[in-house]
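Hi there,

I know you've been waiting on this one. I reran it after we fixed the sequence typo, so this is the corrected version. Both the input and the resulting structure follow.
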Amino acid sequence: MNLQGKKVAVLAEDNYQELELWYPYYRLLEAGAEVVLVGSGDKDVFKSKNGYPARVDMDASDARAQNFDAVVVPGGFAPDKMRKVKAMTSFVREMDDAGKVVAAICHAGWVLVSAGILEGRKATCVVNIKDDLENAGATYLDEEVVIDGNLITSRTPPDLPAFAKAIVDALA
């Protein structure tokens, strides 16, 4: 697939899950997209759960939906911090409102909850936060990838091949 001309934001915050950030990042680069790491604003480098660094290219307060075709929210425990950053949840909501691809895996469902975009939608996540998604109005499906319009969600790292393929397909 050739995603030349497509621009994708991948959100970053401390305690991100390595595979859930880097697998989509490199898969999208491989497909030809421009991929931008977007941080929460308090620093330039965020560390994964195991200390692996991610240097961000942009602060979430500068991210605008008109400049991107998709946003990917990785899991780990980073989403618990991301959901408290108004610029991040506002950006995700703006992307959804614009009908752009919003992709979230594992605990990233927390960001979707805080962005207020799950009412009446179908989604999946790590089972630990299933109740949070349902309480936000989503219908939870225990599937490797769930696509509901522009919303793409997956459960955990073993679902990454289906998750990344769905993102690439949606942007193609």
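Quick highlight: The chain has one domain: 7-171.

Best,
R. S.
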